[in-house]
Automatic annotation (TrEMBL):
Protein name from the UniProt record: Triosephosphate isomerase
GO terms under biological process: gluconeogenesis; glyceraldehyde-3-phosphate biosynthetic process; glycerol catabolic process; glycolytic process
Matching InterPro entries: Aldolase_TIM (IPR013785), TIM_sf (IPR035990), TrioseP_Isoase_bac/euk (IPR022896), Triosephosphate_isomerase (IPR000652), Triosephosphate_isomerase_AS (IPR020861)
Involved pathway(s): Carbohydrate degradation; glycolysis; D-glyceraldehyde 3-phosphate from glycerone phosphate: step 1/1; Carbohydrate biosynthesis; gluconeogenesis
Record GO terms (molecular function): triose-phosphate isomerase activity
EC numbers for this chain: 5.3.1.1
Enzyme class: isomerase
Gene3D superfamilies noted in UniProt: Aldolase class I
Top-level taxon of the source organism: Eukaryota
Record family assignment: Belongs to the triosephosphate isomerase family.
Keyword Isomerase: yes
Pfam family, one: TIM
């Protein structure tokens, strides 16, 4: 399927994240959160060669982190660039770290498209999170019309530039490539499409940070499910997944991370 010149770079441990978004597990109650956590605790555990996290709504971070099996990390879905202040509705990296939450997703397409977050703001968030020693999952992606027009990299480069400009410690930075046209739509990039874009992202990174790019993990996010994960995982530049709806049930999610 792939014209590989080498296997996945040996230092890149696959990383799979389950982004619950504004969902309390598979429902809207604390009980549905409890049921999902119980399901994950009973499911096959991630292998020692794969890192797995769940990104849950703020109000459930404490309860999930205290009850989920320690083979899963717990992540926030967002944070603000300041430590504290008059920023109603926001939460800081310092607060997250104080709760024992050291992973955060920054720049998901829904934050960009629905809430108007700019590359400049997202860059400041990335810089802040990394300065605190947090693991950052920084997202980038293009819309359907941009994919069809052949301008995918034209769209991705400014987003990637904001990441590069605000990253010094690449050991704590994960890139999530999420084609917006494949998020929650049922559409999924083919393994070849996903690999091609991941390889181009890594090639562009190499032009900016040299051989360090070989070690940067790049997740694929875009309607990943228990049926397509195994084929996508074969691509040498796909280092894991950022999973949406399929992470809200323990069975499908465990099948997804189980492919690594």
């Amino acid at each position: 399927m792939f014209a590989r010149t080498s296997r996945r770079f040996m230092s890149r441990m696959p990383i799979v994240g389950g982004n619950w978004k504004m969902n309390a597990g598979n429902g809207t109650t604390k009980q549905s959160v409890v049921e999902l956590v119980e399901g994950l605790n009973a499911a096959p555990k991630p292998s020692s060669g794969c890192e797995v996290f769940v990104a849950v709504p703020y109000i459930y971070l404490d309860s999930v982190s205290s009850t989920i099996d320690k083979s899963f990390k717990v992540s926030a879905q967002n944070m603000y660039k300041e430590a504290k202040g008059a920023f109603t509705g926001e939460i800081s990296g310092e607060m997250l770290m104080d709760m024992g939450i050291s992973t955060v997703i920054i720049g998901h397409s829904e934050r960009r498209d629905i809430f108007g977050e700019t590359d400049a703001l997202l860059g400041a968030k990335i810089s802040k999170a990394l300065s605190l020693g947090m693991r950052v999952v920084a997202c980038c992606g293009e819309h359907k019309e941009e994919r069809e027009a052949g301008t995918t990299m034209d769209v991705l480069v400014p987003q990637l530039e904001a990441i590069v400009a605000n990253t010094e410690d690449w050991s704590n930075l994960v890139i999530a490539y999420e084609p917006v046209w494949a998020i929650g739509t049922g559409l999924t990039a083919t393994p070849e499409q996903a690999q091609d874009t991941h390889a181009k992202i890594r090639e562009w990174l190499a032009s900016k940070i040299g051989t360090t790019a070989d070690g940067v993990r790049i997740q694929y996010g875009g309607s990943v499910n228990d049926k397509n994960a195994a084929e996508l995982a074969k691509a040498p530049d796909i280092d894991g997944f950022l999973v949406g709806g399929a992470s809200l049930k323990a069975g499908p999610f465990s099948t997804i991370y189980g492919v690594f």
